[in-house]
Each structure stands twice: as structure tokens, then as C-alpha cells.
Amino acid sequence: MNVLKLGGAMAALCVVLSGCNATTEKDFEAGQALLRKDAAFRKEVLDDCNGKTKALSSSQKIEFAVLMKVPVSEAPATFCKRLISGLAAGRITQTDMARWRRDGYFASLVQVLKTP
Predict the structure, then answer these.
(1) In the 8-state DSSP scheme, what is residue 56?
(2) Closest listed residue to residue 36, CA positions, set 96, 90, 81, 95
(3) How confident is the model at residue 13 (pLDDT cuts 50, 70, 90)?
(4) Handedness of CA 27, 109, 95, 86 (dihedral sign)
(5) pTM recorded for the entire structure
(6) Quick check: is 1 in a domain?
């Protein structure tokens, strides 16, 4: 399994993240702050993420499950929970997102997903 190239699952990441469209670091940080402070917004983003990750293929779910060390059935929800928590905590930056858009992966996401 190539952890750094999580296939089409990474495409879901940009759709899920409001930060993908942030044009400035200030916008990105504002989105992170909103995730931190606004429980309703965080739930909305989490629900949206959960809905989108259900469409991942079986092989993508297996890749995430192995990476996160969770059962395959829990992989989509765990992915979303860890991802949104990582964004809110500032463990994923705008630079990370730019790297993902350019290269298709970034190491900090892997670390965020591995951390329960």
C-alpha cells in the first residue's frame, strides 16, 4: 500500500475541506477558527464529510482503515473526525493544502490520520 498516494480518496479531501478554496492564508485561518469555535459549523462540515466519504471505493476505505488502524466500517467516519480535528487544531496548514494540490499528498495529513 502506498500511504502517500491514497488514490481517489485524496480527491474527496479537497471536496470536504472548505480550505481548498481559500485564496489567502487569512481566509484559511478564518475557516480553521470557525471549525474551532462554532460547534454547529463543525457538525455541518463533519456531516458533509461523512456523506462524501461513504462514496469511497472499498479499496480506498481499506487503505484508510489500514493507515488509521481502525475497522474498515469505521474508516470513513474516523477519516472525517481526525481530518476536521486536525484542521481545527491547526495541524493542517494552508501550505499543506497547497502541497496537496501540487503533489497529490502531504505528510502532515498522514500524521493527522494516524493520530487517534
Answers:
(1) S
(2) 90
(3) low
(4) positive
(5) 0.78
(6) no
